[in-house]
Amino acid sequence: MKRMKLINVAMVFICLLGLSACKDEPSVKQYRVQKAPGSPPPAQNPVSAPEGLPFSWTVPAGWKQGKPSAMRTASYEVPLDGETGDFSLVRLGGGAGGVMANLNRWRGQIGLGPVSAEEVSNFAHARSTVQGRPYLLVTLVNPDNPGSGISAAIFDLSDYVLFAKLTASQAGLEKAQPSFEAFCQSLTFTGG
Amino acid sequence: MSRGKSKSTLGRIARFLASPEVFFYTAIWLLVLLVVGTITQKWDGLYLAQQKYFSSWFTWGILPGGRLAMTVMFINLTFKLIFNSPWRFSRIGTLITHSGMLLLLLGGFFTAYFSNEGSMPIPEGQTSSYYQDYHELEFAVIDKSPTDYDAVTVFSKEYIRRGSVISHEAFPFSIRVRSFSRNVDLVQRESTAGEGFHGLARRYEMVSKELENEFSRNMAGMILDLQGLDDGADGAYLVFQFMQVPQTLRAGGKEYAIELRNKRYQLPFSIELIDFTKKVHPGTQTASHYSSLVNVVDQGLKREVLISMNEPLRNLEYTFYQASFIEDGPDETTVLAVVQNVGRNFPYVSSIIMCIGLLFHLILQVPKLLRRSKRA
Lengths: 192, 376
Known about the structure:
The complex is a heterodimer. Chain A is α+β, with helices and mostly antiparallel strands.
């Protein structure tokens, strides 16, 4: 009788073992994702002067129109060595929270701690556009997070602040730096 | 004779499976797993403890895991109900309660095998039609050459292991996984790697790390050997989870992107974030309340819905909870927690059935109690 019980237990155990062997099979799926509506083909004309804006710019060669966003004045995909950088141009009224607040927020996005105004000169440099408008050029990289870095330019104008920001890996930023600066220097402002 | 013996053996197995001892010892083992799993969460983290003790068939080598124990319990209750229950009206309460318990376990099975959970970040003004798993990975090859869509080929997690070969007729190159680790650090090379390395792999190398307790903080990474690319770009590439800009490639005159990413579940509709609103406690930056005004876009029709912290959106078998948000400069992104659970109604229904069963049982006991009190 005891032997039969053991056999029963063993049989049930073997069945359950077989059940547990059921694993997910490797699978391959295919589907299509619509590109963002309104994504135009790559820019043919490098000079951009949108209507109704008090500034215009020149699109560096190879940059492609990026996904449009309600917050962004312009958006570009920047082809780099094996990756694509994300460029945004954003205009905000008023002081936009202040330069330091924005710098520290960007630093937080790549895992760096906040800095004081005195330490900004370590990674920020004053530049000017071809037109002669000053702006602050910032490059933020975190050695512990090489997959993401930020190059940004802040144009502090009387009525608004303009942020040009490129997000890419650190290696990508290095490669994109000349075209990013070329974009910033090409910005031409109308009026005061 | 052999037929009779077989019947007898089957009968014995059925009796064994229906015996209350099986339930007794299984319930005790589940209690042990519950206690151990709860305590070890401190060291293993919530996700790993769940996987190790509650969602596994076996734990500690050959000991039954939670899934096996619950399967045994389900089989035991089923056999008990069919072969070893008194099918009389006087016992209808017990039978109904028993059925409710079975339904509860069945719901657990549906939840374990057919439910998905994940997050859905949507930047303001943008639309999304997928959510991503919190933990499970997938590998995607994206053909970006069509003008109005991206053609995506996705390989399940079983392909993401060392030595695996990834190829498909949808793209003209092949990929071999040289190395894979579930948690990595990227370390800058002292000097640029040789000609066989491309993209990030030229300047960075991947170093495996211990798994983090908080599983979602682990960053998976892979070194891939690619063959068949244009312009002599064959060689080693590095991709990792959470890569902000995907690795792009050219092959057959077309542009492709490859991504190691959290598994994505496509929705049969899309959600557009119209406006994200955040209120903070006075004098602080701590959010006290946040909500997302969204459009549910289904077959061209838009339905405006407000999702707030205690008011989720339910559409088809999906539930969308307001979980978090991301502030990226002036851009705001809402993060919704998405639950797709076909078995979500099982606990409610089975609880009601068990309550009805217990109620019947109590009511049917009343005459007995009255008789006893009379005798007394």
